[in-house]
C-alpha cells in the first residue's frame, strides 16, 4: 500500500461533537433509511464553518436537515457541502499526477529506489502475492518518469508521496456555513436519508399434525450505508411509500407491513398507525453495524389453524386464451399443494403480516424436522387469508383433455373438456379443480355442480377416497 506517509491532519474548522443522544433509525424496505441524530455544536456568534463527520457514506445530500433544539431559530444554514473524497492509495495517487514520488522495489535481497514524477495514476492496485499480506503491490496503469529520464510502466513495490493532496478526507463529512445569533453550546437535530439499508420479514411455519401450526417471524436488516448505528432506536415503517425520481416517475418504496402488533415481550416490536402506514418500534436499543445482516425476533404465535389444499389449475400460467389460438392447458398435471390459514384473532393472529418469505416445516415419525416448501407472501392485513403454494402432490395426479372443438359461428366456438383426477394415496383427499375461460363464455353442460369464483374462473370440488378416480366433463361456448 502507500508507505511512509505522515499522519493525516485535515483542518475542518469547527467540528461537532459525537451524537449526545441515541440515534434514531427508521428503515424502509425500499433500500433506504431515515436517520436522526442529536449533536452538540460549540458555536460563536456570527458566520462560521462547522463540520460533522461520522455520517453514512451513502447519505443523500438533498435530504439533510438541521435545526436547533437549544434555541430554535438561533442558527441559519447559508451553505451546505457533502465531502466524500476519501483517502485511499488510488485517490492519493490520482491527485498526485505531476508531482514527485519515490518507488521502492525489492530485487532479490536488495531494495531499489526510483525517484521521479508521476505521469499517470494506476487504474488498479493488486497484490502480486494473492493477498493475505504476502507479495508486493502492482500498480497497473501507472507511468513514472525517473530522474535519469527512464519511463517505468506498471511498477511493483512500495510508493512514497511527499505530501497528501488537498481535498482528501478520512471519512464522509457534512460541512455547513452557519450564521448563529448566539454563542455557546447548541444542541441540534441532524436528519438525513441514507441509501443501502433494507429490511424484510422471514417466517417459519411449523405444522403440528393435520390442523395446527406454530408461526415464528423475524426481521432481517441489512446495513451497507457505511456507518454503524450504536444503541439506536430502531423503527420500521410499513406501507407502500413512493419516491420521486429524476425522470419524473414516482417509484414505489416497497415498504413492508410488519407483524409485531400484540407482542408481549419487552424486547419485541410495538406497532402504531402513522398516516396510511404502520410504524414498528423495537422496545430496546439495537446496534446495527456497517456491512451487517441482523435478525431480530418479530413474533411468536402458537395454535394457528391451517388447511392443506390440493389445487388442479391447468391454465394458471396463461392469460387471455382464445380457442382459435391453439390447444393449451392439457395433459398430465401434478396438483399444487397449498397451506392456508386465516390471519384473524380467532386463529391466534389478527395482526398485519409483512411481505416476506415463509418456510414451512413438519416433523417426521422420528421427530426430526423436515422442510416441506417455501413461498412468498404479500402484505396481509388482519382477517385476510394467507395461501402458500409450497410444492406439488406426489400421490394425486390429474389429466386434462379437450375432447371436442366446434366452430359454431364466426365469433363463437364450442369446446368439451374432461378432467380425470386419481388419488393413488392411502388416505382420502379433497381436490379443487380450477378451470379458466376468457371472453364471453358460458357452460352448457357439466357432469357435476361447479362454482363461479370470478369472471374467468370456475371451480369443481372433488372428494376422493383412497385409490378412487373421479372424472369431470363439461362443455363451454365462448364468444369473442
Low-confidence stretches: 1-14, 249-267
Percentage of residues assigned to helices: under 10%
Number of DSSP E strands: 37
What is the helix tally? 1
- How much is the average pLDDT? 85
What does the radius of gyration come to? 33 Å
Class per helix and strand makeup = mainly beta
As a percent range, the share of strand residues is: over 45%
Distance between the termini: 72 Å
Shape: elongated
Q: What multimeric state do the chains show?
A: single chain
How many domains, as an integer? 3
Major sheet description: 8 strands, mixed
Descriptive key words:
480 residues, 3 domains, Immunoglobulin-like, mainly beta, 1 helix, single chain, disordered N terminus, seven-stranded antiparallel beta sheet
